[in-house]
Automatic annotation (TrEMBL), chains A, B:
Tetramer of two alpha and two beta chains. Residues 76-414 form the Tryptophan synthase beta chain-like PALP domain. Its EC number is 4.2.1.20. It comes from Desulfofarcimen acetoxidans (strain ATCC 49208 / DSM 771 / KCTC 5769 / VKM B-1644 / 5575). This is Tryptophan synthase beta chain. The modification N6-(pyridoxal phosphate)lysine is found at K112. The lineage of its organism: Bacteria, Bacillati, Bacillota, Clostridia, Eubacteriales. It holds the Pfam family PALP.
Amino acid sequence: MSATKILLSEKEMPTRWYNIQADMPNLPKPPLNPVTKQPVGPEDLSAIFPMELIKQEVTRERWIDIPEEVQEIYHLWRPSPVMRAKQLEKALDTPAKIYFKYEGVSPAGSHKLNTAVPQAYFNMKEGIMRLATETGAGQWGVALSQACNFFGMKCLVYMVKVSYHQKPYRRSMMQIFGSNVVASPSELTEAGRKILADNPESPGSLGIAISEAVEDAAKRDDTNYALGSVLNHVLLHQTVIGLEAKEQLAKDDVYPDIVIACCGGGSNFGGMAFPFVYDKLTKGTNVRLIAAEPSACPTLTRGHFGYDYGDVAGLTPLLWMYTLGTDFMPPGIHSGGLRYHGDSPLVSQLLHDGIIEAKSFNQTSVFNAAVLFAKCMGIVPAPESSHAIQCAIEEALAAKEAGEAKTIIFNLSGHGFLDLPSYDSFMAGKLIDYPLPEEELKQSLARLPQI
Amino acid sequence: MSATKILLSEKEMPTRWYNIQADMPNLPKPPLNPVTKQPVGPEDLSAIFPMELIKQEVTRERWIDIPEEVQEIYHLWRPSPVMRAKQLEKALDTPAKIYFKYEGVSPAGSHKLNTAVPQAYFNMKEGIMRLATETGAGQWGVALSQACNFFGMKCLVYMVKVSYHQKPYRRSMMQIFGSNVVASPSELTEAGRKILADNPESPGSLGIAISEAVEDAAKRDDTNYALGSVLNHVLLHQTVIGLEAKEQLAKDDVYPDIVIACCGGGSNFGGMAFPFVYDKLTKGTNVRLIAAEPSACPTLTRGHFGYDYGDVAGLTPLLWMYTLGTDFMPPGIHSGGLRYHGDSPLVSQLLHDGIIEAKSFNQTSVFNAAVLFAKCMGIVPAPESSHAIQCAIEEALAAKEAGEAKTIIFNLSGHGFLDLPSYDSFMAGKLIDYPLPEEELKQSLARLPQI
């Protein structure tokens, strides 16, 4: 029997994050102040972020030390396992070796905790003991709640109202860790009160919740804001995933031909892929890096590359990225974590420069892949992560077609224990492949800010 | 930093299960045929169990080989980690070292998969490709569904009707793995039809579901029955937990003073404790072994030691065990896995002989312990497992009182991702400590079979 799991000891866990800004041939254009349209400086951000994270956002240092206190909390679940999906290889009858990194072992159930912990930590170190954030389906809210709890900090989560009522379990988890969870739009902020005055029955949206959290943080001296994806420092923290994975594959004497991760705001893809992009950029290593996204929200495969706002109300800085436009409302697919109109500027720039690839996948093919994977490996995957599984399956079948023994690794970013209602709908035949609303996309792209 | 996790490689996983029947000073009295009241022989059981499991039920061999095919599936999640709960020790300000074994890493989310896999395997080896079973809240049904899926077998799960409708998520998981899940009472069996004729609105019960599954298996040549706890072979398979834990503690150069596990039918407790009972019985090692049960269903602490049926209808063999009587309906606590009227004969006999201990815990103290543990370690535990946490906390506080640096280990048998509604009720202040229905217990005990 060859080993199924490749484990690292805590001593083998990376003690530094990898900053890809040190090695990119072209950096993204700088974020712009939404009012002045001038590049934002540290002072613009210091009202809502601690100085250490602002530094991480812009530094070109290649390696950033992981503080010992953060390492100690990482040890609650890290290093996470890499597993060889032998049973999936057999089911596909492919000569490809399929590995996956499993981030679902985190107590939050996803990779989000990798950045929630350092974000909370760096705020705490600068005396900020209260964080405000937004959450849609709740993955990020759970992770930040756990992280704040570890450092004795308060956490206020603006949760999109429709999810607050329809997905009470992630809300329960946030409350177990002591967070105050508020249905957004709320009466707590001007932004929320304005929406409620216009429409008392508003179901809320991520854009509104971001506005409320940012307003909360900007108005209170004791409070900062935290974001779960998109920004450079978030992707930096997630690189612990790919750094570990590379060490683990080396223990099995392999280097991947293809590295795959699902991509919403980019933190999961960046975390898995950037340590391999490092090899490609600095050593000329031949490795394909594929971002897997939903065809119903095809930011990287159908978006425009340029400046756009991070939120619907246009309160955040303008980011240089692939975007579908803030007016684009993606169809109601069951991968809430991948329904974002924009994408990480770092990921966007790498795609634009041809260093990475992106592919999109239909919802039903993704759920078919998820069920096949579950039957082979036992693990019920999160729908978001299942985009990476479907991508890996397609690559493994292409390898079979070509008779090539490729080595493939994908990141399984989270488990699906809290996504079982989506599986229920799938098995009842109720999930459909939404056609992309082409006319809506065209109009949304036409309304992009002209800069 | 001392290590948080103690890991074993797959090569270090035990390759044999430990059979405590080899070392017990007194074996339980034999099971009796429910009709003749004579000891059951292999022929009585062969209609619903494969011969290899019947052998394991009665053998006095000390070590039983784990088949290689079972080991390979175990490797999907085993060896499971032992963790040092440093943050919990700190929160309690105790000199005690607190460790826990974590079985929630299994893809089923609990220890149940440890026996589901070999049970499916030994049936498959004897040509039986269809299993029938019952499930209440669904932990066992999920585990057996996964196990049957791995060996290409069919699985029919009779799920208590009220759970089928109120707890659809574990049902979804069984269906993902291809099981046929039927609300019990059903029209598929005589037992079910009889109940429905009397009461078409019957919510079902575990007793009825057992009757349906046993009838299904007894009537069909191609089908056997599988049980998730109580029986000797089930506890045998679970000993992989304690065997691993002992190796892991040895890596940290410690041997426990106290070993704790929650106890419903006994498979979790037996699996964790028996390898340590072995040391106590054969080497005179001084170690306390504590079974933690709910005060609302206090089988070991308030039950009668004698013969009783395993099911409500009296169709199963009479087992020699602690029992509250089959008429005892425990209050509706949120630890569905611990609401069984009887207990494993092996565990019962060891308790009767003073080799192990039992303690009972109120529901609200258990949930308080669960939330404290979650805040310290990140993991949201299953309510059943949280009985062991509360017991460990009490022992750690007693050690503090006595100024003794005891070493405590408990088994965290499962995670609570599918139990969040119970946490919701607890945090809303809706969970109460049910007083034991003393009069009902007295009457139930008075109606025990007279043998």
